[in-house]
Amino acid sequence: MDITLNNGVIMPALGIGVFQSPPEQTTAAVEAALATGYRHIDTAAAYGNEREVGEGVRRSGVDRSEVFIETKVWVSDYGHDETLHAWEKAVAKLGVDHLDLLILHQPAPDRFEKTIAAYQALETLLADGRVRAIGVSNFMPHHLKQLLASTDVVPAVNQIELHPYFTQPDVQAADAGHGILTQAWSPIGGITFYPGWGEDRRNVMDDPTIAAIAHAHGKSPAQVMLRWHLQQGRSAIPKSTNPARIAENFDVFDFELSADQLAGIDALDTGVRNGPDPDEARPERFSMVIPEA
User: Fold this and answer.
1) What string of DSSP letters covers 88-131?
2) What amino acid positions are annotated as catalytic residues?
3) pTM of the model as a whole
């Protein structure tokens, strides 16, 4: 299933994510995903595994032209010239000559003038053909409003935390109003059960409503959640390094959720964010240096 972005570029709706995938496992995960049928890989400079993603693409034997590669600029590389150089670092590590989608990883409101300059560099890269589409990640409606007031190209994508327990309807509406595709990170609620992300969290994988829908279709809770995203027009990038799970997450094109089932999943929204607050300044984290090689 493909989605046409607001600049006409076609992107596979379902991708494989590699957040927190150790570098030594990332190459095999990418290779397994491409063998399964995925054609969209999502990584980021901050993940420290772009090199391994590129290696997985090469080992897969799938032609580069068939693989949609998405990566992200980290905050320490914001600024016009810094972001142009971030592109150079990314393509060198990935071993490619262009990127299909390059996005800003955080709004970084404590230095938003550098965020604007970074996005203007993305516009330059787009005009030069070094990237095919540009976008943002974790931008709330007020961040988008500020960005659009100072730039010319509407982002193609806004990648945000989005799963049944946190659906961010206001962000989805703002994205839709501007013709921006909403892309879900943690689409099957991994952030609700990843170790190290706080206690007292409800694991969306164990939700009884989703379990009942999954049972009705002979599918897993993860497959139901991914189908929910796709039927509502979103892009989703589930992360796994397990070949069986990678294959399961791709097996979502042979069933359809009813309107009542979609509404039932929508009704699970708690309004509670599990990941970092995009409005919060995190100077220590933001200052992490992305190595040259």
Assistant:
1) HHHHHHHT-S-BSEEEES---GGGHHHHHHHHHHHHHHHHTTSB
2) 47
3) 0.97
